[in-house]
Design a protein that fits this description.
mainly alpha, 6 helices, 75% helix, globular
C-alpha cells in the first residue's frame, strides 16, 4: 500500500506540473514518475538516473536517425537495435530498453522537428523523474524502513 500511495502521489504531481508548464504530452512525465518511483529513496535515484540516461540516448539517436533514414518500420527496428546496442557499449545496460523505447517514439511521432520532439520528450521525462525523487524524500507520509 505504501508504494501505491507514493506512486499515485508522484504521478499526480507530475501531471499537475506538466500541465502548469504547458508541456505538450504530460503523459510522459506521468509515465516516468510511475516507472522510477520506489519505496527506497536510493532505488528511486538509481532508477531515475537510468531512465535519464536512456531517454537522452534514445531521443538523440531517434532524432539523428530520422534525418538519415526514411520513415517506416525498418527505421524503427534499426533505431531500437542501435539504441540498445549503444546502451551496452556505453556500459548502460539498465538503460537499454528505455533508450530503445524513446528512440522508437521519436522515429514514429517526430513530425517535421525530430530534435524538438526529442527535446520535449526528454524534458517531460525529466520532470517526472524529478517529481519521483522529491516524493521519495517524504518519509513521514510513506515509511520505508530504510535508514536515512
Amino acid at each position: 500500500m505504501q508504494l501505491s500511495l507514493r506512486v499515485a502521489l508522484a504521478a499526480m504531481l507530475a501531471l499537475v506540473f506538466a500541465r502548469l508548464l504547458h508541456l505538450q504530452h504530460p503523459l510522459y512525465a506521468m509515465i516516468a514518475a510511475v516507472i522510477v518511483t520506489d519505496l527506497s529513496t536510493a532505488e528511486t535515484h538509481k532508477l531515475g538516473l537510468r531512465r535519464i540516461a536512456g531517454t537522452v540516448l534514445g531521443g538523440a539517436l531517434g532524432a539523428l536517425l530520422s534525418l538519415l533514414l526514411p520513415s517506416g518500420v525498418w527505421a524503427i527496428g534499426a533505431g531500437i537495435f542501435g539504441a540498445m546496442f549503444l546502451s551496452h557499449v556505453l556500459r548502460l545496460p539498465e538503460a537499454a530498453r528505455v533508450s530503445a523505447y524513446t528512440c522508437a517514439i521519436v522515429l514514429l511521432e517526430h513530425g517535421d522537428g525530430p530534435w524538438f520532439y526529442a527535446f520535449y520528450r526528454t524534458a517531460e521525462t525529466l520532470l517526472g523523474i524529478v517529481i519521483a525523487i522529491l516524493v521519495s524524500y517524504v518519509p513521514k507520509l510513506f515509511r520505508t524502513g530504510e535508514h536515512r
